Amino acid sequence: xxxxxxxxxxxxxxxxxxxxxxxxxxxxxxxxxxxxxxxxxxxxxxxxxxxxxxxxxxxxxxxxxxxxxxxxxxxxxxxxxxxxxxxxxxxxxxxxxxxxxxxxxxxxxxxxxxxxxxxxxxxxxxxxxxxxxxxxxxxxxxxxxxxxxxxxxxxxxxxxxxxxxxxxxxxxxxxxxxxxxxxxxxxxxxxxxxxxxxxxxxxxxxxxxxxxxxxxxxxxxxxxxxxxxxxxxxxxxxxxxxxxxxxxxxxxxxxxxxxxxxxxxxxxxxxxxxxxxxxxxxxxxxxxxxxxxxxxxxxxxxxxxxxxxxxxxxxx
Length: 316
Ligand SMILES: *Cc1c(COP(=O)(O)O)cnc(C)c1O
Known about the structure:
This protein is of the alpha/beta class. It is built from 13 helices and ten strands. It starts with 8 loop residues before the first strand and ends in a 7-residue tail after the last helix.
C-alpha cells in the first residue's frame, strides 16, 4: 500500500536556499490521494488496512468545522461503506462549511457540540456519556492522533527509500495534534534531526503531547528532534499578511500550492531557522507537505488581500 516515493519528492530551488547553501526538497503528500489528503492517509493507514481485511467498525471522532481529519475519515467511511460520525465544535444553526458539506455528502453523521462541552472531550466523564450514547462505536481522538496514527506515520519513511532523501539532515513537518510528527520521530534515521512546527500556541504542552504519543505507541524516544516554539504566528488558522505574502511568493517560485493553516507556517519557520543559522549551510532539508489544500477554499480572499497588503521582504 506504500505508493512510489520518487514521484513525490520535489526539489525546491530558490536564491535564498542557494545563497545559504541549503538543499531543499518537498515531500508532496498532498499528491497522494485526492480526498484522503497528505498525512491523513498515513494517520488512517491502520484503519484502512483493517477495512481492507474486512472489518466493519463504526467510527466516531472530533474536530472543528474545517477539520481535514474529519474530511478524510468521512471519505474512508464512504469508500469502505462504514458508518462514521463526527462531533463538531460549534452550533447546528451555523452555515455548514464546504468541508462539512463534503463529509455529509459522503455519509458522515454530524453532531454539533458547543465549545464548553467540546473542551471536555478527553475527560473520563465525557467519554463515559459518549460511550452510553454510542455503544459499540470506536472513538478516534481529535485529529486522529492515536497510537495507530503514530505507527502509520512511521511508515512514511518507506516512501523515501531509493529517492536519495531517505536520510536528510533535517526533516520538517507541521504539527497540530502531534500524531504525525510523533510517527516521523519514531521512524527517523539516527542522523536525521526532526523539526516539528506547532501551528497553534501550545507552549511547553507540545513536547509533552509528542512524548505521550510516543509512549502510547510504545516507541522509545530516539531524541534528535525539536519543536519550533515560534511557528504559530498568533494561533491556529491565524494568517498575518506576512504569511499570505510568504505563501504567494513560495508558490510563485516553486509552483507548489501551500495550505494557509499548516504548510505555510512550516515553510516560514524553516526559512527563519535557515536565516538565523540554526540550519547550517551544507544541510539537506526535507519539508513535508501535509496536504490540506481543500481547506484553502475558506481562505482564498484572505490570502489574496493579505499578500497584496503586505509591504516588505519575505524569506523565501
Ligand atoms: C492534520 C494536519 C496536520 C497536523 O497533523 P497532526 O498529526 O495533527 O499534528 C498538518 N497538516 C495538515 C495539512 C493537516 O491536515
